[in-house]
Every structure is written in structure tokens, then in C-alpha cells.
# Entry
Amino acid sequence: MRFYSVVIPVYNRPDEVKELLESLTHQTYTNFEVLIIEDGSTNRCEEVVADYKDKLSVRYYFKENSGQGFTRNYGFERAKGDYFVVFDSDCLIPPNYFNEVEQSLNENEVDVFGGPDKAHASFNTLQKAISYAMTSPFTTGGIRGGKKHIGTFHPRSFNMGIARAVFEKTGGYKITRMGEDIEFSIRIINSGFSTGLIENAFVYHKRRTSFRQFYKQLHFFGRARINVNRFFPGELKMVHAMPAVFVLAVWGWLSTLIWQPALFRLGGGFLTFFLLLLLVDATAKNTSLKVGLFSVVAGFIQLYAYGMGLFSELVNPRGNQPFAQK
# Structure
């Protein structure tokens, strides 16, 4: 029976931490501890954590702000588990999560595992729409984690577990932002460790955001992909360039309005078909036309913002962070 250490970096999100800890109290497999690492927050969650001392094996730490990557390392250094499990603070964990992980590792032990994210039935319309955009293959979101993925599985830090030996050999995260989880996954694989997707070890990712914030987040993700490619040339795959192609197609289509109206109508037809495809698929998957309509907007933003982020970092590089930890 493995012992797991759950490491959760937090920045000004006490309400999220409360919901996450509450979900962990319902786990059917209980051989785990929880480490809440407050990353220099002004709105701390210490009192929230204290309320769960009698329900969970939970420890609280406060440190100066250094970003998610180095904050996770801080937790790893203090963790007691055989595996270190990382969740984002805005995740809810299904009751059978650790049972699924333990069973999967018993059948096929890997050094690093990851799982998908899903939308819970209780999520609001916007949260469901953004979840669709971030997981649908039509928006390239499906490469984040699901039944099908491209090449070797690269876990993401919203739902990921690593064996203790992985941290001891790699030293954990080496950059604090701009693609820190992608960089870490690549370095893990390059170090010879095995990775695997556990399909049933999913989390409910309760993103509290707006379309404007979602645009900023995806724009940042696009920049981060370019930054990671600086460290590992060749990691920018064709699938990652698809959002850039989408941006160019939108720009090209708009330009035809001036010089070639017939092409503008033709391009508009292709765009309309694509958006209708998102509408039908999202509506069917969520059994809600309202979620489908919101998903059209979210899907467009997911592609356009990511593509613009790629171009932004290529033209005006602001990443290229050294492999140095504070």
C-alpha cells in the first residue's frame, strides 16, 4: 500500500482550498497526507487548513512568493510519501481518485502518472464551456490528457504524481513560470523515467475565470510553449502550431473583405462550419445549448489567444528563464 503526499501550491485562494480539502475528506483510499504551501499570499488560508486538522493529515506552510514551480519543490522537500501528487488549488478530487491510482500502479507501475480534467455537473455555464475548450480535440485542448495523446505522455501539473526518486534525481522544477510543467515533464522523460496516463484518475477543474482572463491565460500558455522550445529545441510540434495557423487564417479571412469579397464569403463559410462543429459537439457532450454557445466563444478564444501568444513570444521574447532556483 503506497503512501502519497499531496502537494498544493496556493496564492490568495482560501475558498478554493476549502473546497479541495473537503473533496479530499471523501477519499475511499486514505493513505495520504496533504501539504498546503502558501506562496506569499496576502489572503491566507491558514485558518481554513486548521479546520481540517481533525479530518485529514494536513500540514500548512507559508513562504515568500516564488511561483508555482519552486513552491511545489518546497513541498516535495518536506513530503513523506512514496509518490508526490500535485493538484492545482482550483481542483475538486473525486472520491475514488487514489483508489484508481493505486490500482493502476499495481497493474502497471510507472514513475510518473497524470490524469485528465473534467467539468463537474455543479459547475456553472462558463466553467463548463472553458472545460470543454481545454479538453476538446477540436481546439487542440485534447492533447492535455485523455484517452488519446500524441507520442510519449507528458503529465501536466494540475493533476500529476511523481515517484520520490524522480524528484531526487531531477531536482524538481527548474523554472518558476513560462511552461514550468512542460519543461519538467520533458526533463523527466529525458532522464529515463516512465510515464503513464491513468484515464480514470481525473479531477474536476473548477476554473474561476472570465472570458477576458481565459484569453490572458491562453496567451500566456502560447508564450510558454515558445519558451520551452528554447530549452528543448524540437519540442514545438505541428499540433502546437495549429493555433498560429488559426490566427493567420482569421487575419487572412478578414483581409479579403477589402480586396476580394468572394473569398471573404468563402472563408466565412469555413469558419461558420468550424464554429457550428464546436456548437454541436459541446451541446451534445453537455446536453445544454447554452453551454454549447458559450463553448463556441471559449473554443475560439482557446485557439486565437494561444496562437497570439506564440507570435508574441517569437517577436518580443520575455521568457528564456535560466535553470536557476531561488
User: Anything to note?
Assistant: DSSP finds eleven helices and ten strands in the chain. Confidence is low (pLDDT under 50) at residues 145-150, 322-326. Residues 214-315 form one domain. The radius of gyration is 20 Å.
